[in-house]
Design a protein that fits this description.
mainly beta; disordered N terminus; 2 helices; globular; 4-stranded antiparallel β-sheet; single chain; 5-stranded antiparallel β-sheet
Amino acid sequence: MTMADHIPEYLRSHVLAGDRLSVSLTDRARELASQLTPGGRAAVTLVKEAGITVVLLALAKSNELTDHHAPGAATVQVLEGQIEIAGGARPITGEAGALVTFAPGVEHSIKALTDSTVLVTVVAPPAG
């Protein structure tokens, strides 16, 4: 058995970095949603290049990402469903089409109010 035998098929066929990448969010979201179990979640990293990470995340209803923070600026874009983001002065409810941004280090949690798919982008803080 070689090291390549331990790499998931997705990573064998998917490039995470390059001069130009193209990904079908619709196809990837459908694929992730098909992997969901009740109360579960599934995620795939779509891009990891030059200080930017893009992750597609499917959350089953009631699944929650507990308090966490990103070291750099971050966005959460709701593609499908409805989520609640806690942190800051009051919770934010986001439905398909909503975009929520966070400054570096802002603690927050995300809860799926319905089966949901979100696109998370994190930008690494500048080296300094």
